[in-house]
Design a protein that fits this description.
It is built from one helix and four strands, in the order αββββ. The chain is mainly beta and 82 residues long.
Length: 82
């Protein structure tokens, strides 16, 4: 969720706040402690009020993912901004 939300923030260049509307996570296999988990998210579509994101988590090989995610996020301006 955090990685996906950050992808939206990057896409809006930090000018908007975001809130999770929907997030689906498919857990494909267990993570292996103590290996690092690498997550990469892409905001592939941004409308005026909704952002669409895909993400993948892995231990270093994107071809062998731990989990995949798809989400939608509400995009809105902080108070005081139009």
């Amino acid at each position: 969720d955090a990685c996906c939300g950050l992808a939206v923030m990057v896409k809006t260049q930090g000018t908007s706040n975001v809130a999770t509307l929907d997030l689906r996570i498919d857990y494909l296999r267990p993570a292996t402690p103590p290996e690092d988990v690498i997550a990469r998210a892409e905001c592939y579509k941004l409308t005026r009020h909704v952002a669409f994101v895909r993400a993948l988590a892995h231990h270093g090989d994107p071809a062998d993912p731990i989990a995949s995610a798809a989400g939608t996020f509400m995009v809105f301006s902080p108070r005081g901004r139009s």
